[in-house]
Amino acid sequence: MNRALIMAFGAAALAACSASHAGLPVGASAPDFMTQASLAGRAFSFHLADALKKGPVVLYFYPAAFTSGCTIEAHDFAEATDQFKALGATVIGVSADDIGTLNRFSVSECRNKFAVAAADGKLISEYKVKLPVLSRSNRTSYVIAPDGRVLFVYSALDPAGHVERTMAAVKAWRSAHPAG
Length: 180
Description:
The structure is a single chain. This protein is α/β, with parallel strands linked by helices. It is 38% helix and 21% strand. It has six helices and seven strands. Strands 2-1-5-4-3-6-7 form a seven-stranded mixed β-sheet. Strand 3 (57-61), helix 3 and strand 4 (90-95) form a beta-alpha-beta unit. Helix 3 packs parallel to helix 6 (162-176). The protein is globular.
């Protein structure tokens, strides 16, 4: 990459972390979508509405597979996936990467624990996570209740805190809905 592009990406990423780019508000209806996803290197069709029938969904957007922050975040979510499952939640990461890249990322960085899905520009826009300069998403994590409402949103460039905060939101939901 040339220096100007790197600087533009950095500026866009920093701008994306501001409160004005926090994504959908709590209580909003999460846009339903279908897209290609990968789990353990195998592509499949992911439909948010189907996942919500099983319980809450932790939907986290990340800028690009195999970048340092996104790799750290994938490792963190992989380590916590069993805890999320025990609470009845599904974890899925979303980026603008192609399915071939996601197949590799799901194995090496997600450690075959959770799925990652391909997002187009429309999905990134609907969830209000578009980086200002690039056709990529910022780093925003959502917890979506089974009724399709946003329970929690956290947007920060730093991958630290996304797992802990989404886990706390899922635990709070589970406490309020012990039967599911």
